[in-house]
Every structure is written in C-alpha cells, then in structure tokens.
Amino acid sequence: MYVSADVYISKVMHGLKLKRRKSRTAFTNQQIFELERRFVRQKYISPADRDHIATTVGITSAQVYTY
C-alpha cells in the first residue's frame, strides 16, 4: 500500500501508527548465479540441501526457500 508523505505526516501527527514493511533482500549477482544454477539441476530442494546452499551462498535457509 502506497502512502503519500502528506498522509503519512498527518497520521503520525494524530498518533496513528503505520506498519513498517520489511525491506527486500537484494541478492548479489553471485548469489543469484549459484541459486539459478542449483535450481536448474534440481527443482525441489530438501531442507538439508537448502541449509547447505544457504551456508555456501551466504544467505539464510528461509531466503533460499523463498527464492
């Protein structure tokens, strides 16, 4: 949901709190390359493989799962 600056300021001034969105992870080119390479060979990845990939690439297992 997009909130303009004027509406945001107005809501803040009236004590209403807005939900903060979690920022998206920006994968590096190397991480994308490794993830794509792995997913081309194996469409479904086991939790153990997911943990291994995450450690190798330097991201969390949840990020591999989401990717």
Descriptive overview:
The chain is mainly α. The protein has a domain at 24-67: Orthogonal Bundle (Arc Repressor Mutant, subunit A), CATH 1.10.10.60. 58% of the residues lie in helices and 0% in strands. It has 4 helices and no strands. The mean pLDDT is 81.
Q: Enter the CATH topology name of the domain at 24-67.
A: Arc Repressor Mutant, subunit A
Order of SSEs:
HHHH
Number of helices: 4
Give start-end ranges of low-pLDDT stretches. none
Q: What gross morphology would you assign?
A: elongated
CATH superfamily of the domain at 24-67: Homeodomain-like
CATH architecture grouping of the domain at 24-67: Orthogonal Bundle
Largest sheet: none
Report the β-strand fraction as a percent range: under 5%
Q: Using DSSP, what is the number of strands?
A: 0
Radius of gyration: 19 Å
Q: Helicity range of the residues?
A: 55-70%
**Chain-averaged pLDDT:** 81
Based on the model shown, name its key terms.
67 residues, mainly alpha
Brief overview:
The protein has a domain at 24-67: Orthogonal Bundle (Arc Repressor Mutant, subunit A), CATH 1.10.10. Helices cover 58% and strands 0% of the residues.
